[in-house]
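Long-time lurker. I teach an intro course on protein structure, and each term I like to show students one example going from raw sequence to a predicted 3D structure in token notation. This year I'd like something fresh instead of my usual example. Would anyone be willing to generate the tokens for the chain below so I can use it in lecture? Attribution to the forum is fine with me.
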Amino acid sequence: MLKVVILLIYFAVLIGIGLYCRKNATDVNGFVLGGRSVGPWLTAFAYGTSYFSAVVFVGYAGQFGWKYGVATTWAGIGNAVIGSLLAWVVLGRRTRIMTQHLDSATMPQFFGRRFDSVGLKIFASVIIFIFLIPYTASLYNGLSRLFGMAFDIDYSVCILIMAVLTAIYVIAGGYMATAINDFIQGIIMLVGIVTVIFAVLQSKGGFMTALDGLARVTDDTVSTTPGIFASFFGPDPLNLTFVVILTSLGTWGLPQMVQKFYAIKDEGSIKKGTIISTFFALVVAGGCYFLGGFGRLFSDEIDIAANGYDSVIPTMLSHLSPGLIAMVVVLVLSASMSTLSSLVIASSSTLTIDFLKDHFIKNMDDKKQVSLMRFLIVVFVAISAAIALVQYKSNVTFIAQLMGVSWGALAGAFLAPFMYALYWKKTTKASCYVSFIFGSVLMVYNMLFRATLPKIIQSPINCGVVAMLAGLVIVPVVSSFTAKPDSKLVEDSFACYDKKNEVSQKVSLID
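-- Reply from a regular --
Happy to contribute to a lecture. Here you go:
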């Protein structure tokens, strides 16, 4: 009863906020970007909660914690330093300035206006549409075991509840409702992860006792080195490094993450948001991976061969009190719903603004665009829920593989072109096309013909890292021998950075 009451209160708050924010979602700017007036706390929490979902808490933390022990905490540290701190420092201000200057609300629209290319805009929107849908479906996977453990209800019911509730508050209040709910969900995640770590370690005698127990765990199939799972770098530092890079640097090219910078209110929000977002990532991501690192202490209860890595975290939590289990369920539900809301807004806005508007549906005013986006949110949520149900009922493994390559494909295609477009005037349209093609095709090839690739990049994670890093080389190389961009277009795009603003001395000391 306690678990049910907590969930009902949580659901009521989410829907109430969605209805409250309806007045801020009457036009495209308000619905997609919250009027570009979102403060530091909401923006930082929206960024963090979109970053971490059930995929991280249940899937990645369980899998990599089992493989690398407490060394997997490096992934959480990387998420905080590279995925949050450096992302805000390198991309935050420039993204906010140039996207407003170009009047772009989505990543494809940014590419279209930055390079004056309809083809580039449409190509980017197609890539986002193809790879965000399976990524959205993957969010449901981490909930199945937790809901089964806590409530003993069918996974299908979990999917439908999550899909309906998310659709209601996003459709009603748009980005602002998402941002406010993300803030609440973020608080739950912060408190929840700290509490759960403490409770799980206490169940094993406390931190030092648990660490000592982990140091005594052996697995000759992984390593013969004593204490390897409690060591600083773990049994496989190379592949752990690939995990850190993909899950950290990858955020720089994900449309639903970068779009958070579009809505930042002012300079103060960027500075505060950078600190808040980094702290959030350090606690939540660091905590998730740290907790997963102790998974092998429960090896007598876990059968990886039969139940997979997704069973690690739920097993670790299964002995907690009903109140703590309720907190865990709300924690994971919060993480997943916040990410899902960001993904469906990114998908619906991209399809409406970049693909359908002007190309297939002429003369759409703001009201029609918002109505279409609301309809498409329902469509996207329904499709992702259907994919998750099909995978659950039919055990269709290729869908799970496609989910794994989604992150690598999106980041591999967009990271380099987006960053260079913000900083480098010589970036060419052709280099963006080549990066789009290379990143997306490489990841699809990895999914379909994995065995033909060199062993080091047969893993979708390693392959995704190669796609991202290759883009950083592809863009400048291709730009060096392809048609130069129009100088007037480039100067106009970069003129926004040279605009003079007067500030008080408390902001800047000037002689």
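Some talking points for your students: Residues 2-394 form a domain with the Sodium/glucose cotransporter fold (CATH 1.20.1730.10). The two ends are 66 Å apart (CA to CA).
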